[in-house]
Amino acid sequence: MQVTTFGEIMLRLTVPGNQKFVQTDWFHANYGGAEANVAVSLALLGDQATFITKLPNNILGDTVIQKLNEFGVDTNRIVRGGKRLGLYFLQPGAGVRSSKVIYDRNDSAFAASKDGDYHWDELLDGTDYFYISGITPALSEELQATLLSAVKFCQDHSIKVIYDANFRGKLWTADEANTFNSKILPFVDICLVNDEDLENAFGLKAFDNRNHQAIHEKDSFKQSLEELTTNYPNIKLVASILRNIYSAQKSDWQAILLTDHKFYESSTYNMQVVPEVAAGDAFGAAIVHGVLNNFKPQFQVDYAIAAATLKLTIPGDFNLSRDSEIRDAMTR
Amino acid sequence: MQVTTFGEIMLRLTVPGNQKFVQTDWFHANYGGAEANVAVSLALLGDQATFITKLPNNILGDTVIQKLNEFGVDTNRIVRGGKRLGLYFLQPGAGVRSSKVIYDRNDSAFAASKDGDYHWDELLDGTDYFYISGITPALSEELQATLLSAVKFCQDHSIKVIYDANFRGKLWTADEANTFNSKILPFVDICLVNDEDLENAFGLKAFDNRNHQAIHEKDSFKQSLEELTTNYPNIKLVASILRNIYSAQKSDWQAILLTDHKFYESSTYNMQVVPEVAAGDAFGAAIVHGVLNNFKPQFQVDYAIAAATLKLTIPGDFNLSRDSEIRDAMTR
Amino acid sequence: MQVTTFGEIMLRLTVPGNQKFVQTDWFHANYGGAEANVAVSLALLGDQATFITKLPNNILGDTVIQKLNEFGVDTNRIVRGGKRLGLYFLQPGAGVRSSKVIYDRNDSAFAASKDGDYHWDELLDGTDYFYISGITPALSEELQATLLSAVKFCQDHSIKVIYDANFRGKLWTADEANTFNSKILPFVDICLVNDEDLENAFGLKAFDNRNHQAIHEKDSFKQSLEELTTNYPNIKLVASILRNIYSAQKSDWQAILLTDHKFYESSTYNMQVVPEVAAGDAFGAAIVHGVLNNFKPQFQVDYAIAAATLKLTIPGDFNLSRDSEIRDAMTR
Amino acid sequence: MQVTTFGEIMLRLTVPGNQKFVQTDWFHANYGGAEANVAVSLALLGDQATFITKLPNNILGDTVIQKLNEFGVDTNRIVRGGKRLGLYFLQPGAGVRSSKVIYDRNDSAFAASKDGDYHWDELLDGTDYFYISGITPALSEELQATLLSAVKFCQDHSIKVIYDANFRGKLWTADEANTFNSKILPFVDICLVNDEDLENAFGLKAFDNRNHQAIHEKDSFKQSLEELTTNYPNIKLVASILRNIYSAQKSDWQAILLTDHKFYESSTYNMQVVPEVAAGDAFGAAIVHGVLNNFKPQFQVDYAIAAATLKLTIPGDFNLSRDSEIRDAMTR
Amino acid sequence: MQVTTFGEIMLRLTVPGNQKFVQTDWFHANYGGAEANVAVSLALLGDQATFITKLPNNILGDTVIQKLNEFGVDTNRIVRGGKRLGLYFLQPGAGVRSSKVIYDRNDSAFAASKDGDYHWDELLDGTDYFYISGITPALSEELQATLLSAVKFCQDHSIKVIYDANFRGKLWTADEANTFNSKILPFVDICLVNDEDLENAFGLKAFDNRNHQAIHEKDSFKQSLEELTTNYPNIKLVASILRNIYSAQKSDWQAILLTDHKFYESSTYNMQVVPEVAAGDAFGAAIVHGVLNNFKPQFQVDYAIAAATLKLTIPGDFNLSRDSEIRDAMTR
Amino acid sequence: MQVTTFGEIMLRLTVPGNQKFVQTDWFHANYGGAEANVAVSLALLGDQATFITKLPNNILGDTVIQKLNEFGVDTNRIVRGGKRLGLYFLQPGAGVRSSKVIYDRNDSAFAASKDGDYHWDELLDGTDYFYISGITPALSEELQATLLSAVKFCQDHSIKVIYDANFRGKLWTADEANTFNSKILPFVDICLVNDEDLENAFGLKAFDNRNHQAIHEKDSFKQSLEELTTNYPNIKLVASILRNIYSAQKSDWQAILLTDHKFYESSTYNMQVVPEVAAGDAFGAAIVHGVLNNFKPQFQVDYAIAAATLKLTIPGDFNLSRDSEIRDAMTR
């Protein structure tokens, strides 16, 4: 079984410690992106994972490829060209202080890429699963068209499509997201969707109040997931993380999985850490890993939430956890 | 409107991490002082701020000036001369371990400065507000005389005086502080006073028990503030931070403001951070900013406590927050 | 009064921050070992402390000696020779992530040392107390024989023996430990024993359930301690730390001391820190310091738990606390 | 006397040590640009210096302004707006290894700025000298037009124009440079020109062979300078640095100044350092400082080469040297 | 064409800066070994490279594999098992101060590996070239037998053997080396041999005096190389680096290549850097790259010396240079 | 044989890298002083060394003592008390840039110490050699008296006096130094004197021209040394380092020793390093070590210059070299 993920990978430049931009002489450099993160997770779990993107033909592009190779991701199908690597600056928040992000991803090789850059017959040759997220269509209309032509190719060639809703309000509006998602959801076999995504990206009301704690209102959330699978019967599996957030370093995490009209709930983790990013990608990868390896649904959702909470403790975008470590975390 | 602050700025040498003196080969260097911190805050908020002190005529003195210039503070009236820059060594505490401070500020250019070093007619020319604190009179009798001659000058030239009580038990006794404060309070228009200052510096009993949690005993504190403004009717505005402290990294923060015989209370912030220093100076600066910009009292006190809690998250002595960041913190 | 401790000291190589092995280009280097830690604590508290071990005749061996000299430990009786310095790699845990240890101590100069390497008549000449732990006999049968010949020497020469049970499940089995301990306990005057040691190392059942919180089940623990002193009436003093552990950075700590058939309990500390290692050694050293200086039992146990909680805040293996700092922590 | 400089300031992200891109997790961050560097130098030398540019309206833009304020540069006339801050990545060379630069400055606020962004009557109000370089016209035709309108404004308002040729082969061709320079040189009063610029930017042949050591072939270089001032008699002063480069860390530096048809040569410095950047800007600033303060030509050229060689030892783009340090370096 | 290299890869722990062991709290961690370095170089140059070794089944073993994957080396044939990863501590020298190495590689998984661990029919399946060095036979007699059985397998299956003499006086004596080399040289097709190796490892006298500068005495060295190929006519190509060493950071480097009875000499590089390690491995890899890609001998030797001098500037054991960078260095 | 050294030890705060004060947020912390450095060297060489000074009764004082203990120096006779630890800030020079020192040692515990602080009968009890330098008398007249009473005590108790001239022009004038030295030299048995000291401190003309290279003018220097021993026949041994300095990182070092009317010259070392400080103290210590161990004069001077050049490569003030390392350096 072979999984291909497709999306943008960027350079993140982070202000260290609790400093502010004006205080620092150093940026911590880190490469990541939702779909690349998933490919790395899968490769470390022993699955065959290919990552497709477009990278500039310079040393930064080469560096990205080496960082992916390190974890065993197949990078041979990455398209080279374009002007620059997308990047963003991050000044993490603390206490009452918000985090600050300065996106500098316009005109990146991927964001400016064209449908014609991707020859799906070659790129997806031999693939069994195609993993994409809602970030890519938010980047350009061209990329929306690209995604739709890709999923059509998948449908024609019996490649299963996995879609992580991943709504990003800074990149497009809820209306734009809804419009696009109504076009792509009919092609999706497995759907990952956060509590925040359901309403913004899919137009389904999940909670009554804006400041909900998701685990407390699990029931209304479940109703929405059922509605989703009723609307799109092609979706065979939906998985979600629900979080109650109490403070910057205190939160509860639970996962829920719907398949064959039945819900499976993971145990709940009380996290007391300043969380690292990309837990959702670790979760998505673990769900896919379960599909590839025929995990039973209950084990699959338990395994995936353990992978997600483990990622909260690991610096960087990639979940560097191996199978034994996830199973160890399941017992704690 | 132009504000002038006057006091000492020192070099702080801090042992990094949780290390002890004997473990470290490195000291983190940082320049700060109550009145300089206020000037920086005001300059960053867009007000015209001048800082006056006496600095040695060496590279460390030059460095202090450049650090202040960075944030837009007017440093042109700083007096140069004297033997050395005051400094102190700090080994921060952790858990049951107390922090350790080694002061090395004797004979500093400022502490040894004389009344004749400061020509108030030139130094305060054009100033509307004069900001001082209870640290300066604790340094020498000469500086007590200097402050008294300065506030008399202010009275004669319609310059408003802002006084932050800032009692430092390591520098003088409560008796000495009371004696001096009874001389200067008749000249004060705006007074900032902590829960710990009221009793030690002003001789007013604020709480019944020594280990009080200030927010819980707000009422007795208010009585003392009223007594203060009754004793010194020249004081038009008093503002205070009240804290309940639960552990090294858990505390509640609320502010209170008394003006025109009426109390205004801010909302309460539950802080879960290892706090950085100088929140009181950030608070004082924000109160002054409100005065300069005609904030309504309720907004003023809400704004000031947000500035203070924001400072708790920022390394160093200076509150690097801009107006938009304080307003953002008010909504969190 | 002179104390001699005997055991292995190793190089610890720690992955910094929350990184994983594959992410780091740097290891933090630190030298420590239970018995060396005790010697350092005692020397810093002003007692005469000698540390005996076997170290390789290379620069790493020299470095260990200099690190011990720094704190005033007498290192003149250390035996030199053997192949290598024992070392281990540590990747600290975080949240649901377990810590990972890779031991690399086989064939170390100490682990491979022979009975004949230690001439107790010379090495213990002038000593009043001999401090050992249950780690040493776990390293080899030869070292078991060495320890037994040493304690017999002590018995013959009126040197008191202090034994810290310190069971290490990675080095030997509970059965092996029980067998050896039944041979050495008849020589022991002062015994330090953790809640986890009692059952594994001494074969005494301390708690009914496996996931006990020790402070909550203090009574059953006390019964076991009484049983220990009944079985081995030569043991004049037993001291233990009891912990309730709520999360990686939240725990309660209390100590208990049994002497003259009477129990003394310390106050309980609520710790909210990511704990540093070797609190048990700090505790043991403080108990011994109390013995050397004729502390009353209640003060002794209060002093020792303060020393232990202080160590939780100090990086490295050595408790760099002096007497005044421990007394200060007792009041917090 | 007041000097205004105009140009782009960028964020430089440098790979630390001798590492390569793929090895580093950290970039050193540094802000600089030829014309900003000159403004900083002048401000530190005590001259009134204003820097004009266009910066994005985000925190990085604010940070740049604070960094300039630190040294006393007037930043009040900086235009805000546009998409992003220009930046570039630098992997320094070593031995036979070339340095690698990845420019990422397209679409920067300055590079994309329009003539209409700059209202010269306001921006140059009160200015006596206007300092520009050949980097700006290389960025866009729009900026060429902007510069020409600016220098016309200067001519009409008796503002002297200082032009540093600063040819950058990565930004435009020699032909393009020659075409533009033939338009701007008639407006220039003071010209700074490197050995590499003369041919590429001004179309004057300075040396016979490509791999010349400039000091050895000073005579042919002088001829070209004379030709320049003959062609453009409006140019009252020309100054140049000549270098013999023997290896990455060994070179000779000499300066030459032509005014009133007479040449002045500085002494020659044998440099044995890995040189920091921006020595040319330090030189240019020192020449301007000499003009502002009526230095005699021989002293002016000696002073300027000392400033340049001093900059070779200072990390970052800004020459943090004060007058006393330059005079000290002149004696070494 | 596919190359397989076989040998040990170790963890190097280096004291940073000019510090001594007793001064440092940090070790820089780096993985490398002659044959692994060659595999990395080849993979980065675009060749198919497989590395075979035996690594312990722990996280350090996993880490080594990921570090090799990063550069595209095929690690699928690495044998897992054994006790520990070999390691060594390095305190670099400076000026008159010698570097200090503490080897701690006894009992490493590779050093203790047995002939039966390596199934050459599987491990070398599909390989065209087999690269080994004189370090491996110095580790144990078992590994000598292993190497001899491997090269016999190569002879039987038309796999070319490349042998880097790499004499290590700390691991075995010249006599032992000569004895073994006389057995393996009849199987070698390509031989890499340093000036220091010829005499110690092959028993051929290369220079008259002990403190020779190799480039100055090139002629006598050439005679020895001719003697080598006369003795072992199976050796079709010999390549060597010759160095004149003037000080810790000043040396001349030249390479020499003998094939078809003809000598080819590279140009000479004057290096003025504190050299990084493993230039010889970079050289060997480049020679092999030339063989794989049919470089003409003169170009091959020029290319290889450029690769070697480039490595002198790159931290760590791996030559991170790509083809374009080597060609660029050839022109400097 | 037991050596006691007496003088001040200070905290040095150094700006890291090539940065300037205004650029750094960190100071490197290091403790050192001429006489303490000598004690450390001797202890590491295996001699019995005691250091006497006066240190403040705070954590910085404790830290100094621990740093000395690390190397085996006897610190039990150090006097405690006084106001503060002396310190100085150092910004190292580079290229044409001078180093900058800001002394902040006034009022230090040692500088302000009184004759009555030192009870020589107790402090020098059991000592065979007393080592002092010309820095101490430069600090105060009180310390001049102290030194004179100490050397008289030595004369009365057959303790040999070693005096390192160590003239410091920032602390006193040449006239003051000459006056004091004429009083103390009659008590000196062994004298260490630099080329710069002879004229300034002893009033003996050593070189004709001011910018001499000392090795080139060895003969005139020898004449002065002879004159010194003629004037003070009590001086049995004089040793000096002579240096030719070519650039910041290039110099020649040679030592000369005069005893029994005969000169011994060491070989000359060509140093190509950025030198660390305190080579002179390493030299002095090695001379004393030779005296204690009856080295022959030629070996003694060779050994001492090797120790000095070794120190040039070791960060910090202490020469961390052991006997074997010095002997190794002698062969390079």
UniProtKB/TrEMBL annotation, chains A, B, C, D, E, F:
- The Carbohydrate kinase PfkB domain covers 5-210
Give the record's family classification. Answer: Belongs to the carbohydrate kinase PfkB family.
| Signal peptide (UniProt feature, chain positions) | none
The yes or no answer to whether the keyword Transmembrane helix is present is no
Source organism (scientific name): Lentilactobacillus otakiensis DSM 19908 = JCM 15040
Write out the transmembrane intervals.
none
- Please report the name of this protein according to its UniProt entry: PfkB domain-containing protein
Superkingdom to which the source organism belongs: Bacteria
The family database entries (Gene3D superfamilies) matched by this protein are listed as: 3.40.1190.20
| Keyword field | Kinase, Transferase
| A single GO molecular function term of this UniProt record | kinase activity
